[in-house]
Amino acid sequence: MFISHALDSLQEKVVRPIGWRLLQKTYDRWREPLTIFARTACVGNQVLSRTFRSSHLKLYHAQKCHIDFLNELDQGLRPTAGLEHEIASLNQDSMRWFTQLYQKDLLETFLNSNVSLFDSFCELTDLKVEIHSGIYSYGHRSDFNEPEKIQFKELDLEETWRSFTALVKKKQELNPMSPIVYLHYSSRNDPRRHYRDRAAKLIELASSMQSSFSTFRVLKCDEGQYSYAENDKLPYHYGKETINLLSNGLSKILSDFDIRTDRYTVRN
């Protein structure tokens, strides 16, 4: 009797799980990978890594892909001839992020991805930059060598959002089951009033878009739940509790589109 019970327990706890894992790996080999277009900085990257646990996912990362840049690609207004001027003006740390913008078919990657994740840091902080006569880019002053010689212009959020609306509409028409998630960076820990006002405007615009498009979702915590990272007082570096809350929120959003995050892990 004891031996029979032990064998049943062994089958339940060891044999069946191993068999299931082997079956899952076999399935992963032939099924199409989940593709994610990620316009994310540190927080969005942490949320992605925390959310996806298993395997068979393809991540396309374009950290510096401002919405207006993506819209210019869609409108055929982006002159790739400006790349050499852009690279020449960048500092070494930022160069790899900007060269991602000129990878082949960036717009098509966004439009055809299964999931799109944007975090709001670009729209919150990036400026329009004239890097050469009539050639513009988007970024921080800290991205460029000799920023005092470059003209920077703050972007109007209403205009940016009109560009985003057109892109969201186009993607939803192409694939009505492909979620576009906008992760809100809270400015509650930022002492600068300008950025707190800008963050408030962004969440207002994003919430309005969520009511207009079924594929567009806002990912955020309650303001009081945006905590500092341990031993880090930078206002846009959040603690583990905040990352976990955002990860759980992302899983819930994706489940509404029949995407199970426990079956995927981020693989660059």
Describe this protein's structure.
This protein has 268 residues and is of the alpha/beta class. The chain folds into 2 domains: 1-31; 33-263, Rossmann fold, CATH 3.40.50. The protein has helices at residues 2-30, 42-51, 67-74, 83-89, 92-99, 106-112, 121-125, 157-174, 193-210, 240-255; strands at 34-39, 57-61, 115-119, 127-132, 135-139, 151-154, 180-183, 216-219. Helix 9 (193-210) links the parallel strand 7 and strand 8 (216-219). The longest helix has 29 residues, at 2-30.
Question: Brief overview, please?
Answer:
By secondary structure, this protein is an alpha/beta fold. Helix content is 47%, strand content 15%.
Strand order across the largest sheet: 2-1-3-7-8
- Estimated share of beta-strand residues: 5-15%
| Low-confidence regions | none
CATH architecture of the largest domain: 3-Layer(aba) Sandwich
Classified by CATH, the class of the largest domain is Alpha Beta
Give the overall average pLDDT.
84
Major sheet? 5 strands, parallel
H-E order: HEHEHHHHEHEEEHEHEH
Overall number of strands: 8
Q: How many individual domains? A: 2
List the helices and strands and how they pair.
Elements: H1 2-30, E1 34-39, H2 42-51, E2 57-61, H3 67-74, H4 83-89, H5 92-99, H6 106-112, E3 115-119, H7 121-125, E4 127-132, E5 135-139, E6 151-154, H8 157-174, E7 180-183, H9 193-210, E8 216-219, H10 240-255
Parallel strand pairs: 1-2, 1-3, 3-7, 7-8
Antiparallel strand pairs: 4-5, 4-6
